[in-house]
Specification:
mainly alpha
Length: 114
């Protein structure tokens, strides 16, 4: 019989930030993660949307395991840039599009300063 507490502890450790064991390129866990991601890419094959979504979430997971909660800054930047792009496309004038672009650039530069 499989002990469910072992499985729960494994999953909890997998998805928690461990500053003493970051996911480094030289560790076994990185190469296991790389093999799983590569297998997932091969599994999705020609389904571009699924493959890209899978890669995005794997990238965010990797960033979380290496940089901690700075992944929230990355997610904020992704959402900000997406919303800025949407706002630029619906701008009625060229000037309105430029203003939205400049706002997006300023916020991104401020994020870099953080």
């Amino acid at each position: 019989m499989i002990d469910t507490t072992l499985i729960i502890n494994f999953i909890r450790e997998l998805f928690s930030l461990q500053t003493r064991l970051p996911l480094l390129f030289t560790s076994f866990y990185f190469w296991a993660f790389f093999a799983l991601v590569f297998s997932g890419i091969a599994l999705f094959g020609s389904k571009v949307l699924l493959r890209n979504t899978f890669l995005m979430f794997c990238g965010l997971f990797f960033y979380f395991k290496t940089s901690g909660f700075f992944v929230l800054v990355l997610i904020f930047a992704i959402l900000l840039n997406y919303l800025c792009a949407k706002a630029i496309t619906v701008a009625r004038t060229e000037r309105g599009g430029k203003v939205r672009l400049i706002i997006g650039l300023v916020v991104n530069i401020l994020l870099l300063c953080y």
